[in-house]
Automatic annotation (TrEMBL):
CDD domains: ParAB_family. Residues 4-180 form the CobQ/CobB/MinD/ParA nucleotide binding domain. Pfam families: CbiA. SUPFAM superfamilies: P-loop containing nucleoside triphosphate hydrolases (SSF52540). It comes from Pannonibacter phragmitetus. InterPro entries: CobQ/CobB/MinD/ParA_Nub-bd_dom, DNA_Partitioning_ATPase, P-loop_NTPase. This is Putative crown gall tumor protein VirC1.
Length: 205
């Protein structure tokens, strides 16, 4: 199975929104999908409990207590909602489970130092250095302002990682979080909303 870790050492960057949306997007294509929640708040599993019957199935895994039981299927996807403040041995354990590491980046000068340090620590891990896992940086909660765009360009240049895509800051994501749904569930969100996710989905295929 392909294992995708969504993580940042900085809380409040939208990890759970990315994890749940990606899980639902791949489930909508008919893939076998698991959503592993490694955060003590268990927000992803809470979202999954609210998910209406009749929508594409997503299987939940509770990793919040440190146990990382991995499904034995040869095909499918496991999306791992990593904990905030991730560092040390816990970080190494989760990275060791991952084929791809999605790092949400917010256009905030206050958050940037923590994210930059986290990316540096990731790059030094053995699994990353050996090319066994790829780091994908995604700009999240982006507003339509020139200031945000300039800050994102600066952050991408300093990090050494290109921004794969930009996910806009929209009220629709809060609504979906409350109902256990996502923008890919019927009725699907407008095309311009979905288009922002396509580069990330293609990179994980």
């Amino acid at each position: 199975m392909r294992r995708i870790l969504i993580v940042n050492s900085k809380g409040g960057c939208g990890k759970t929104t990315l994890a749940t949306t990606l899980a639902a997007a791949f489930a909508a294509r008919g893939e076998r999908v698991f959503l592993a929640d490694a955060d003590r708040q268990r927000s992803s599993l809470g979202w999954l409990k609210r998910r209406p019957q009749g929508l594409p199935v997503i299987h939940g895994l509770d990793w919040s207590k440190g146990e990382h039981d991995m499904p034995s299927f040869s095909h499918g996807f496991v999306f791992i909602d990593g904990p905030g403040g991730l560092r040390g041995e816990k970080a190494k354990e989760l990275v060791a489970e991952a084929d791809d590491i999605v790092v949400p980046l917010m256009p905030s000068a206050f958050d940037w130092d923590a994210t930059a340090a986290f990316l540096k620590r990731l790059a030094e891990m053995k699994r990353i250095r050996k090319g066994k896992a790829e780091i994908l940086v995604v700009a999240n909660r982006v507003r339509r302002s020139r200031a945000d765009q300039l800050l994102l360009q600066q952050q991408a240049q300093e990090s050494g990682y290109p921004l794969l895509t930009e996910i806009a800051d929209r009220v629709i994501y809060a609504r979906h979080a409350a109902s256990g749904t996502c923008v890919f569930d019927p009725p699907a969100a407008p095309a311009d909303v979905l288009a922002q996710w396509h580069p990330l989905i293609q990179a994980l295929d």
